[in-house]
Amino acid sequence: MSSAVTNSVSSLVQSLGEIPPEAVVFGYSEAMQALRDRLAKIAAANVPVLIHGESGTGKDIIARLVHSLSPWKSGPFVKVNCPAIPGTLLESELFGYERGAFTGAYGSKPGRVEMAHRGSLFLDEISELDMPLQSKLLQLLQDGQFCRIGAQADKKVEVRIVCATNRRLEDEIENGTFRQDLFYRINVVNLYMPPLRERRGDIATLVEYFLEHYNRKYNCKARPVTPELMEVLQKYHWPGNIRELENLIKRYVILGTEDVISADLQPRDSDLLSPDINFDGPISLKKLTRQATRALERKIILKVLHNHHWNRKQAARTLNISYRALLYKIRDAGLPPNRAKKEAAKTQVAAD
Ligand SMILES: Nc1ncnc2c1ncn2[C@@H]1O[C@H](COP(=O)(O)OP(=O)(O)OP(=O)(O)O)[C@@H](O)[C@H]1O
Ligand SMILES: [Mg+2]
Q: Are 57 and 97 in contact (CB under 8 A)?
């Protein structure tokens, strides 16, 4: 474990109070250990970094860590959320403008590129940049120069560029929406954030961390989750990754009942049709089919219960199974045992 990474994480914990401790950020899975080693290696080199991975995997946290490890760590960390700024405004937001550059430009304004001088510029969702902006960014990466809108001369900045994306930029290049030369420039170091389902060994640590964090934050006393529920959490495939797990534990802490978690862990239709298959190794058709069948059964039971206003006797009749069998299946599928609990879970989910 690199002491540079350790120090930097602890200083972030102190300064921001929100970055989780190192053991939580990296966990113990092989993929995250490899990420930590890579991060330690690139610490001193002031090269562009591209962080990619599904939504909710922690790209933001890692971008901040990259900054805190860089030679310009005492400089600014400037984040630009590209999709959040409408296309026409993004250029002036990024590169700034001179007085009279366009109607309404009564004064001059520096862009975020300038604000990040001697610090890091974090471009989140980089695939959202349109082609003209991609060209301007390419120039910045090539010679550290850029031009404010309406300016006569170029300006020079020293800035570390960190980009993030949850799309495959190679596909965007193929589609003609992302410049290949820009891709090579931003992708000097590549950091891959594995999805939570590829690092299941870290789920327990994360659950424990969020439980403690939100118990403290909301002044609650939610107990550790039961081993049964932990097993469900370990098996779920987490399309929303750590963000989804965090929200789930937050609800559990506030409501104090595990039913809210069970109610949340329903597979979506698309998950049933495309189960999480890892083609690297042998595939068990039997296992996958069993999982999909169980998920489908759970969905049907839930629907029938709903149609009968949670009257389990009527639901059992409709499903043509015994009442006892239905009770067993409800418990086995981790569904709320009765309507009151289901409603409590639903209300909170909606209010959240
Ligand atoms: N390793 C981690 N330890 C604790 N919390 C984490 C970790 N990774 C992510 N989180 C939490 O999960 C949530 C999502 O993380 P983050 O915003 O960094 O994801 P992201 O990959 O940037 O997602 P998006 O692509 O949607 O922007 C945040 O609330 C963050 O605090
Ligand atoms: Mg993000």
A: no
